[in-house]
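Notebook entry, cofactor series.
This is the third protein in the set we're modelling with a bound small molecule. For this one the ligand is S-adenosylmethionine. I'm keeping the input format identical across the series so the outputs can be compared line by line later. Sequence and SMILES below, as received.
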Amino acid sequence: MIASYLFLRRKFNPLQVPSLPKETPGWPWGYSTQKQFLLEIGAGAGVHAIKYCQEHADQFLIALERTRKFEQLQRRLHLEKTPLPNLCAIRADAVPWVSTHVKENYLHKIFILYPNPYPKMKQRNLRWHQMPFMGFLISRLKLTGQLVLATNLLWYADEAEEYLTKVWGLKLLNRTVLKDPVKARTHFEKKYLERQETCVNLIFQRIC
Ligand SMILES: C[S@@+](CC[C@H](N)C(=O)[O-])C[C@H]1O[C@@H](n2cnc3c(N)ncnc32)[C@H](O)[C@@H]1O
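Returned structure with ligand:
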């Protein structure tokens, strides 16, 4: 139970985030402005990003991954027979990258699929929905833009739902329990569904 929702809406200062390494690519200018721009944070090995872009040629996805898993994403992308001009994969930490490169009211959709849950109490400030950065991230969504969050942990889904609706003012559009490993969108989703764990997919909308 959250005692005081407004108290939990901590202010984020984009000027205080550590700067990105010099070689980190910025916003992929030069792509059609007709496209809807989407962001995936923590894209891992890129399974979702690649499939999503194959199925949504009219949308442009920027997939961010900060660890060496990015190399798997790149390898997977290079192995694709057909190039994907609507996918831009960048190795970067999402907090400074978004703070530096993403305009306000710009994104159509943001995916955060199976984020690290940081289950220990002392690490709870690292959960995406508890970070002050979340308010900034939501401000990068267009009005009516969506945030898609998936997790295999019921407590995490419940807590994220409470924060995202009550602290950050999003509207919950849909909450689904996923069961079929054949339809898994990511490596982690496949692993959890094959173990018959419950996966929860939450879709939120920016309404103000
Ligand atoms: C549990 S994995 C899930 C990967 C993938 N979404 C999947 O479902 O298979 C979480 C991923 O988020 C990435 N990640 C965590 N914090 C990040 C950040 N601040 N910026 C970019 N990636 C981040 C981690 O490196 C890790 O690859």
